[in-house]
Specification:
Layout: E1 3-5, E2 8-10, H1 18-23, E3 27-31, E4 35-38, E5 42-48, E6 55-66, E7 72-81, E8 87-88, E9 92-94, E10 108-115, E11 120-130, E12 134-137, E13 145-147, E14 152-158, E15 164-177
Antiparallel strand pairs: 1-2, 3-9, 3-15, 4-15, 5-10, 5-14, 6-12, 6-13, 6-15, 7-11, 7-14, 8-10
């Protein structure tokens, strides 16, 4: 129930942080394998939240590393379908390495290199130029991008022309029990 201060309603909000979720064993980091693409092919990496997971994903950071001497584009997508040839990444771990037993994420990190498929469904929310021989680091989203069961957070690596590229994607997120949507 909103409280009133100076005749203005005040909503109480629960704020969570990556540090708190790391301590609780709910914060994860994962990376793709080496992504080779170009010559008319794309690469893709992302987190898929299974429809039956019972959790929401809260996206924090992503990085895209470009190992080549040409720029390429990173397209950021919400709720797009992964390519059919996507592999599951086994390079995923909780950031709290002191937790025992080690928590396992319910979300699944997937990736694909040399895919002829563009993204289908979903929304391309923004693009980033990934400079040559560098790593692009996103600003912290602090959980402001929330992916419910059945959704995904994806990065499509798009080459310029027919040059060939090599890169990787790293994603960080935390998971919390899914609750009913908030009506605003």
């Amino acid at each position: 129930m909103p409280e009133e201060t100076n005749n203005l309603p005040v909503e109480l909000v629960n704020v969570t942080s990556p540090a708190l979720n790391s301590r609780l064993g709910r914060y994860f980091i994962g990376k793709t394998g080496l992504l080779n693409f170009g010559g008319g092919y794309y690469a893709w990496g992302g987190i898929v939240n299974p429809i039956d997971s019972g959790i929401n994903l809260y996206i924090d950071l992503f990085t895209i590393t470009n190992y080549t001497n040409q720029n390429f584009i990173g397209e950021i997508w919400l709720n797009a379908l992964p390519p059919k040839n996507a592999a599951t990444s086994f390079d995923v771990t909780p950031t709290n390495q002191a937790a025992s037993p080690s928590p396992k994420p319910k979300a699944v990190m997937k990736y694909a290199g040399s895919s002829s498929e563009r993204m289908t469904r979903g929304v391309n929310i923004f693009d980033r130029i990934v400079p040559q021989n560098s790593t692009l680091v996103s600003d912290s989203h602090n959980g402001s991008i929330i992916i419910g069961p059945g959704g995904s957070f994806s990065i499509l690596l798009r080459p310029h022309g027919y040059q060939y590229f090599t890169g990787t994607i790293v994603l960080t997120w935390w998971e919390e029990k899914s609750e009913s949507p908030v009506n605003v």
